Amino acid sequence: MLKFNAQNKFKIMQITDIQEVPNISPDTLSLLNAAVEVERPDLVVLTGDQIKGYGITYKGKGKELEKHVAATIETFLRPIIDRGIPFAVTFGNHDRQVGVSNHDQFEDIYKSFPGCVGEQAKEIDGGGTFALPIYSADGEKIVFNLYLIDSGTDKKGGGYEAVTKEQIEWYKKTRDALIAQNGGKPVPSLVFQHIPLQEHYHVLKQVKKGTKGAIRAYRIHKNEYYVLGDTCRSGDVLLEPPSIPDENTGEFDALAEKGDVLGVFVGHDHKNSFVGRYRNVDLGFTQSAGFNEYGNGIHRGVRVFELDAENPNTYATHTLEFKDLVGTKLHKPLKDFIFRHFPTCVDAAIPMIGKALAVLAAIIILIVLLIKFL
User: Fold this and answer.
1) pLDDT tens column, 221-254
2) Interatomic CA distance for residues 99 and 117, integer angstroms
């Protein structure tokens, strides 16, 4: 049972996009160790892409593969487990790509470690979709609730899957049961998932091409440009377009329907770290924590949420960055330089490839002309 402490406080740490391989980056481990040591959260929430499932570094099949995946997971969980901190996990688009299903990762790997909390919703296939109530200090009443939602994986033909209607109906059923249990009043809640909602664009501001700091978007927002909107906060960062599903299945409308959900926090787009407000719901991004994938250099980090049982309808949130927790020196600065300038999505890579090919063609033509005329 998760409970507020004697001072009526409860602290959550969101860690997202660790995206690690068997040869885990020491910088990833340094960040995780420092973050949990400084904050000592009451719960860690892992919001997907814990492993780099599409890589070629995980070997074997069946139980052998699962064993190798488990070894990586145990390594990055050690900073949490060794401090006796409970943790909950949902999944991103890359976890299952390793060849071990989210269900098996959830049931056979994560739940084998001490401190793993949460039971997969019975109505939903897979793993990583469940509710986590947080009780009063005396354990008598649910004061706050967390929803973890497995937001799916890459969609055939490009883009990303949307949260399913079955998951939305599960949320509504769970929400309404909590309301009934709470005397007809909504139970304040936060939602954690990996892939952002289409509505995350509603906390941004569309601007003209060439506007300072503007980020080019793709797919259903093709050739549109955005900056942070007016409801975003000082120090927030938008460095890549939110990679959202092309289809809107109505998740946000359900979450905003009865006023229980205070905020929806995601990962997925590694360089983004911001919080904006739309229809009385906070929509936030947390930057990536892993150094074996593209990211924002020493600004990789985690997000902390502070709850107060005496005022559960509000919360405070802040991020912690590698540069402040560990320092500015990285083990592989050249590799990180490449990752910082790596295209953030396939759509962003296409024009970069086109420019590179154009430069290469120009060089070849120049060489041919020099050979011919010299």
Assistant:
1) 999 999 999 999 999 999 999 999 999 999 999 9
2) 24
